[in-house]
Amino acid sequence: MKLIAHLEDLLYKAQTSPADQKLRIRDWRVVVHESQLISLGIKDNAPGSVYTPPGYRQRESGEVLIVWEDGRLSQARVQAVSERNDQSGEEQLRQWYQAAYEDPDGREIPAPEAIPLVAVEDRAVQKVLAGDDEILFAQLSRLLKDRPEQAEMQAEIQAAWGYRHVRNSKGLAVTYQESEYALSFSFDSIVGGGFAKRRLIREEEWVKTWQQTLEYYQAMQQEAAQVTPQTTVVFSPGVADAFIGQFIVPNFIGQSILEGQSAYRVEHFEKQEHVFNEGLTLIIDPLRPFELGSYLVTSEGVAADRTVLVQDGVLKTPILRVKDARRWGTRPTALPLGTSGLYLKHAQEGLWPEVLQEIEDGILILSVLGMHTQNSAAGYYSLSAPQSLRIQKGKIVGKTDVKLSGNFFNDLKSPETRFAKSELSTKPYILVKTGLQTL
After folding, report:
1. What is the longest distance spanned by two Cα atoms in the chain?
2. Which residue in 407, 415, 355 sits closest to 381, CA to CA?
3. Is the pLDDT of residue 85 over 60?
4. Is the Cβ–Cβ distance between 428 and 414 less than 8 Å?
5. Alpha-helix runs per DSSP H in 259-312
C-alpha cells in the first residue's frame, strides 16, 4: 500500500498547504491497483519450457486526475514508488502541472455514494497466491494427460489476487480485494476452450468446457458439405463477443455519440428509437458475483449499479463516464470492462443444446479473421471464418471454411435472428441469415 499512501499524502498537502501556491490543487481523484499473479503454460505439448516458464509477478500501479486551482486538469499514470523513481513531491507535482490542459467538463469529482456488496474475491484464489498452488500444476498435468494423442496443445493458466484503492478529494475512500482466474487451451491452434472469472473453475465447468472443445476438434477432422444461401449462420459466444466489442461498445460510448463518431446520435436516445429486435436487451451489470466485469466502484469513483442500454430493442442510454454524463445532463452509468460486464439477451432465447437440435442446415462460426479492420460505425462486415463447423439435422458433422458478409446492426434488428443461451459463456449464440459463401 506504499503507492496509495504516497499519493494521498502528496495530493492532500498540495490541496491544503502547498509549498508553491501555483501548485495548489482544487480537487483530485486516484485509483491504485496492487496485484500478485502466477502463470503456468504449455507450448507444443511441453509444460514449463523456455516459452512458457512458470511465473510470478507483483505489480502496483495507478492513475491520478488533478484539478488545479486555476481550473486546468492533469492526468497521469503512476508506478510503484522505489528508490530509483522516488521523486520529491514538489518535483512530481511540477511535472504534472506542466502537462495541464483545459477541459471544463472534466473537472467534476463525484461525491461518495453507498457502495454495493459484490462478490469479486475468491478465497481459494488467495490461497493459491499464498503458496497453495498445487491445484494449478494439477490442472496443467490434466490438460496434457487428457489431450487427443495426435494434437499439439497450447495452454495457459493464470491466477491473480490483489487490492483496488479508489480515493478522491470529496471524501471517497474505498479499498477492496479482488481475484481473477483464467484458463485457455487449444488443439493444433485450431480449436480452443477457456474459462475466465473471479473464482476458480468448478469440476463440472471443466468437464463441459473440455468435452465441448474435444467434440469440436474431432469434428474438425472431417470434411463436410458446402454451405448454401439458405444455411443458417451461428455465431459462437466467442464470436458474438468479438462482434459486440467491434460494433456495439464503440457506438454506445457517450463521447463518441456527442462528437458524431457513432452510428447513433443524441436524438436517437432522446426519442428512444427502436433499433434492434424487439425482444433484445443490452445491459451493463457489474453486480453479478465473481464475473470479470463486476466491481464495487468505477475508477472514477461511481458506485457500481446496473445500467440498461437497450430494452426490448429500444435505446435507453449510452455508456457515460463522469465527463460525458455532465455534457449529457444526467448521471454517470455503469462501465463495462471491455465487453466484460456487458450482457446481451433475448426474451425468447432457448438453451443451445435444444436450439442446436432444431437447426436443419447451419454453420457454427468458431472464429473469424479481420474483425479489427471492420468499420464500427457502419456495422458492415466481410470476414473469413476458417474454423467453422457444419450443422446438419441438428448435429455437428464436420468442418467447412466460409466467408461472411453482412451488417451486424441489421442482424440484431432482424426478426429472423434467434438467440441461444450458453452454459459456458455470458454471451449467447446468435443465429442469423447473412451473406455466406464457401472459401
Report:
1. 77
2. 407
3. no
4. no
5. 266-270
- Cα 40 to chain center, whole Å? 22
DSSP 8-class letter at 22: G
Looking up cell 437497450, which residue turns up?
Answer: 310
For every residue of 235-254, DSSP letters joined together read E-HHHHHHHIIIIIHHHHBH
Q: Residues 242, 247, 248, 253: what is their CA dihedral angle, to the nearest 10 degrees?
A: 120
Residues 6+ apart with CB under 8 A from 17: none
β strands within 99-172, DSSP E:
153-168
Taking a C-beta distance cutoff of 8 angstroms, is the pair 99, 76 a contact? yes
3-state SS, residue 418? strand
Q: Which residues pair with 182 in a beta bridge?
A: 158, 196
CA 151 to CA 67: how far, in whole Å? Answer: 57
pLDDT of 82 strictly over 70: no
Average pLDDT over residues 261-283: 96
Query: How much is the pTM?
Result: 0.94
Instruction: Work out the number of other CB atoms within 10 angstroms of the CB of residue 80.
Output: 16
At residue 48, the pLDDT reads 84
183 close to 174: Cβ distance less than 8 angstroms = no
Contact (Cβ atoms closer than 8 angstroms) between residue 147 and residue 49: no
Residue ranges and CATH numbers for the domains of the chain are 2-212 (3.30.2290.10), 223-439 (no CATH)
A 10 A CB-CB count for 415 gives: 8
